Amino acid sequence: MIKIIYEREMIQKKFKLWLPVFIWAGIIFFFSSRPTTAVSDIHWKDFIFKKTAHVVEYAIFTTLLFRALKESSLSRLRASYYSILIAIIYGLSDEFHQNFTPGREPKMRDLIFDTTGILLAIFIILKYLPKAPEKIRFWAKRLQLV
Predict the structure, then answer these.
(1) Could you tell me if residue 47 is inside a domain?
(2) Does 50 reside within a domain?
(3) How confident is the model over 41-78, as pLDDT tens digits?
(4) Which residues contact 47 (CB under 8 A, 6 or more apart)?
């Protein structure tokens, strides 16, 4: 009986950790499946907005991956390595998938912005959060990042 309860709790824990990862991956897929809109009159504004979106969406994706992997009993260092690897592979697959989306094409530049977000997230998690002010560390612990 205790074993069944323990197994159920473990399944629920994994579900709670991995569901946000898959939902976020779905959000990325959804937005990259949409045909592009016309470029605004001020091209640099469009560029800044879209590239910032790449950095932010992959930073969030990597953070969710890190949390799920770390809480699955990997060390922080291994969780960071695997998070980087998985997120870059997902970014590559996302760029490849854009071959089949009208008005879109894969771009190495986008993958570079994705990777920037990935590395930025891991840098913040590993270097900044452990030394952050108490209030930030409190929230990082609640979000299972530290």
Answers:
(1) no
(2) no
(3) 667 777 888 889 999 999 999 999 999 999 988 999 99
(4) none
